[in-house]
Amino acid sequence: MTATYPDLEGASVFITGGGSGIGAALTDGFLAQGARVAFVQRSDASAFADAMEAKHGNRPLFLPCDVTDIPRLKACVAEAAAAHGPITVMVNNAANDQRHDTLQVDEAFWDWSQAINLKSYFFGCQAVIPGMQAAGGGSIINFSSISYMMGGAGYPAYTAANSGINGLTRSLAREFGPDRIRVNALAPGWVLTQKQKDMWVTEEALAGHLARQCLKEPLVEEDIVGGVLFLASESSRMMTGQALVIDGGVAVTG
Ligand SMILES: NC(=O)C1=CN([C@@H]2O[C@H](COP(=O)(O)OP(=O)(O)OC[C@H]3O[C@@H](n4cnc5c(N)ncnc54)[C@H](O)[C@@H]3O)[C@@H](O)[C@H]2O)C=CC1
Ligand SMILES: O=C(O)C(=O)C[C@H](O)C(=O)CO
């Protein structure tokens, strides 16, 4: 059950990685609010856009883009603004939590990981801020993760980026608050997307993780949508520079 936010009707929303996983649930959730949604991702999402149009009678604008290609990312932001009006809601969601062994990481892997998981976030924000300033404000939601709060081993380049996203978020909130641009992070817990199930979920790992949650059910994509809509809408008008955690209540120490 998701609340309705009347101010999101007609809002111009841009989502990175909006065609699969949590991002697809976000595209669905914003379309259900009557927003105009543009999203980017690397792989073809035309069939998903068709399905969304059939469901909502409101087609999202899919723009193929690798978010590590910053000129292309900026061009997509410009194309989305031309189609839907100035972007007033930006969701930096695309990421890659590829596991890695610290002693095997080389500079190329490190740079690849930061390019997706941190650099694209900075330049995604930079691309939408002038339009938000001209529009009199906006809301940016940067996806982080509880991964760095848990201090989990096995993906330090990813957790470093997730931690960096919170620093980025707080600094941008300070710099652009006077323009009425709000910048918040959202840190999900373990959300059982198809990719997580295919790549990382084992019975043992899931049981260990659920033991750390207060609420003993796994999270699904839709559990994240309500928090993002709230941060996007004027219902959170005096909230900025924060990290909203949706993780079923994971104990972060021990
Ligand atoms: N699923 C989980 O358990 C958790 C997810 N998160 C965060 O939530 C966000 C979404 O995660 P998921 O839906 O699980 O991820 P996912 O891997 O299922 O989807 C990520 C999306 O980003 C796109 N993408 C990846 N690299 C890209 C690139 N270079 N250029 C363009 N698009 C690219 C993918 O195509 C996909 O649409 C991420 O920021 C992730 O760090 C955080 C904590 C836990
Ligand atoms: O990709 C992530 O970020 C996560 O999967 C965070 C999870 O809570 C996790 O890593 C559980 O082991």
Compile the SSE list and pairings.
Layout: E1 12-16, H1 21-32, E2 36-41, H2 46-56, E3 61-64, H3 70-84, E4 89-92, H4 107-135, E5 138-143, H5 147-150, H6 156-176, E6 181-188, H7 194-199, H8 203-212, H9 222-232, E7 243-246
Parallel strand pairs: 1-2, 1-4, 2-3, 4-5, 5-6, 6-7
The chain binds 1,4-dihydronicotinamide adenine dinucleotide and the ligand O=C(O)C(=O)C[C@H](O)C(=O)CO.
The ligand O=C(O)C(=O)C[C@H](O)C(=O)CO is lined by residues 97, 145-147, 152, 189-190, 209.
How are the strands ordered across the major sheet? 3-2-1-4-5-6-7
Oligomerization state of this entry? single chain
**Helix run count:** 9
Order of helices and strands: EHEHEHEHEHHEHHHE
The CATH architecture name reads 3-Layer(aba) Sandwich
CATH topology: Rossmann fold
Low-pLDDT regions: none
How would the global form be characterised?
globular
Question: What's the total count of β strands?
Answer: 7
Question: What is the arithmetic mean of pLDDT?
Answer: 97
What share of residues is helical?
A: 40-55%
